[in-house]
Amino acid sequence: MKNKKRRFWFCLGLVLAGCLFYDFCQVSGKELWNLVPQGTKSTVTITQYPFLAWDAREEVVLDEAQVEALETLFLESDFTKTMTDLVWIKEQRPQVYDILWMPLDGSEPLSIHCIGNDYLLVTNHFGGKHLKIKNETWEETLSEIFSQQEIEP
Rounded CA gap, 101 and 89, in Å? Predict the structure, then answer.
């Protein structure tokens, strides 16, 4: 009887630890979007360039419709924290996107670095670890937001 109680509490502890670890590793798009400076006017720019080709970068300042589309992309996506400092990229030469929110009131900007459809790095957040993107259409949607001059509602 005593052995069964120990086994029960041990299994319960393992399940609880697993749930806590899963919760720690999962990052929702809403949680990420809440890092964006809210309530202040901001300039949002996206810089796009091929991996390891910083000289070939293009930069676009987003209008309100594009920022709303970017918000929708974040809110519809989920991410997973990586436990290592190094990440392996699947694609040979992925597109890289740097998203910068620069608040006009002088508060701290938010910088997000996206590597293709694989990883995302939010400067000064998540312990410097990359987030694995769990949205298959992330890069495609981000490219559409980047390339559109005006987004039709």
Answer: 25
Least confident of 112-116, 117-121, 145-149: 145-149
Q: Set out the domains of the chain in order of their start, with CATH numbers.
A: 27-147 (3.30.1490)
Q: What is the pLDDT of residue 152?
A: 38
Helix (H, G, I), strand (E, B) or coil at 116: coil
For residue 117, the 8-state DSSP code is: T
For residue 50, what are its two tokens? Answer: 């091929």
C-beta of residue 145 within 8 angstroms of C-beta of residue 151? yes
d(CA 11, CA 21): 15
Structure confidence by residue, pLDDT tens digits, 13-24:
777 766 666 656
**Mind listing the pLDDT tens digit for each residue in 21-62?**
665 667 777 777 767 766 667 788 888 888 777 677 788 888
Q: If you ran DSSP here, which 8-state letter would residue 51 be given? A: T
Query: pTM to 2 decimals?
Result: 0.72
Maximum pairwise Cα distance, the chain = 71
On the CB side of 133, CA atoms within 13 Å amount to: 26
